[in-house]
Task: structure prediction
Amino acid sequence: MRVLFYELKKLTGYKSFLFIILASLVLGVYSNIRSVHEAPYKPSEYRMLSKETDGMSNDEIGAYISENIEKSLNDEGVYSVGFILSASDRFNEIQGYSNYLDDIDERCRSIVGFSLFGSKNSFSYKNALKTREAYRKVRTRELPFAVSEGSKLVLVNETTDILLIFVMFAAAVFIFTKDKEIGINGLLYSCPKGRTSLCRKKLAVLFCFSVLINLLFFFVNLVNGMITYGIGDLSRPLQSVEGFMECSFNINLLQYSAVMLLYKTLGCFIWGCVFSFICIISTASISIYGLSALISVTEIYLSRKFAYNSDKGLLHDINLVTFIKPESVFSSYRNLNISGNPIYIGIGIPAAAAVLIIVLVTLCLMLYSRLGCREYRHIGTILGNRASHTVHSRMFYTLKKSLVLQKNMYVILVWVVIVVIFHTSFTKPAEIVDLHYKNYTTDYKGEVTAEVDEIIRNDSIYFDDVRQKLLSPKLSDDERRFLQNEQFRMEAYAMFTQRCEAIRNKNGAELFYDTGYKRAFGIGKTKDHLIITFLVMILCVLVISPLISFDNSMNMTSVIFSTASGKKSYLKHGIIVTVTLSVFASIAVMVPYFFNILSKYGTQGITLPVQSLEHFADFTMPLNVWQYALGLFLVRTTVFTLCSLAMCLVSKHSKSRFSATLINVTVFVMPVLIMMVGSRNIY
Result:
């Protein structure tokens, strides 16, 4: 018990680890706030609807919504039209819950009675029987209407899942690599309880941390949900929350919250055991990061690639991602197809998780207890190498230390392969609206003249006629299909008209096909600029973080700084390596990216004023498009370099390469990842 206490005290005593936890919580709050601001409707509307309908019966709520729909359509309501219509759709869905249960029973009865599925040994037959029986046990037949957005922020938050995985990785690294890093494993292994017993205590600390971090994130999300949308009555059935209508459990929100915490705690512990196993078997930090990233990306890819109802659905369900997503079990009733036998996911997935925990814990205990003193083997390997007597410059040794001794050459090679895949997979989406927009901007390229205005007026009359014809009930199928296709051209026409109005008489601005430039400059819904930032940041973090912190961990800097010019020269060469690597990463990612943009979208308008783009119509500097692109490249490279220098500063003040890397990942990589994947669609 004493060893467990000291291991827990040691973990919570690392300031860098506490900083990572605090930063992750801040990122979680930021993600929640960002998701609220990106939502189509304001939180104030949800709070108002919840307040006004509190205590009403469903009939009264229906009348209240209908009344406000009419007011909003007449511009007299307190709600936006889109919001009140979406509330009406949700209310109708709630009202139809009883019919929904009857439909499930009818479909299952039809499958059981249909001759094609009549074999009692078939999966479909047995699955229908179990599904029908499960939904017959649902006691709730009428659901209360309540705002679900606040509850969903707490119960289904995939950004939180990613952050939980990251902090569990950090915890595993600090628990299982710190002793190895400071070189006391040899002493610990010689103690009576320094192997299997010590590993058990470390895994117990990992489990305690899993409980703690889940409670922290749950509390943060709960407070945010209450402040923004409101949580509502926690005693209402879980089925009343949007996305859980197909749930077959007779539980309320409060009960599900407790179950969710338990489920996520075990799921996080599984991830922690996976990372602990990697830390135990790895001899270098590069292999820890590489294997952890490979497993994480693979599991997320399998979860996204294969749907639960596909032939390879087990890869989706029996997955590390599923183990931290309780909604995959509780949002609906499903059975796994195990050799033609339906196994309920509420049994199959937890059983698979339990087996995996036992296997991982056993492997960790066995391997940790049989490890030798790698420090001594490493010294022997070094002594066996022949040293070169050739004298090189100090810059040469700085590069050799970073690329060879710290094994960053492997990181750079893997990163180059990923960047090549990114560039070769670059595609231009085949969008019908963009094709029509290209035709508009190409046919009428140049200045916005009276002829263009005439085209705009004629097309406006034509599209008004299209809208009127679409309302006619006497259209043939061919005419309706043609008019519906014309709606794509109508959307392109709206974009073309808006651009013409924006750039008219703007500093020599002209019309040309500009979709490629908008994508390159990060205008619109494109996330290419975030992917570029992520690629550059991840290389800089992995290569720059150990640059000085590695020497700090070995107390080599005290020797280097004691020389005449050691400190000044050492830091100068470290800064040069940092700047060189960041500039290399920026060029390797952005230059081929701009080349892909020009080759896929064309070079038209590249010498015209940047004010020709609608987004830059009011831009004050007299720059051409290519000049703005060059300036953007220089600005981004400068920002990347400044971030890299900040990483170098973290490395200088860290006495552990693991701490420096994890702090830099938290500060420079995780925010970009959160912005890149969004708050609701990570998987």
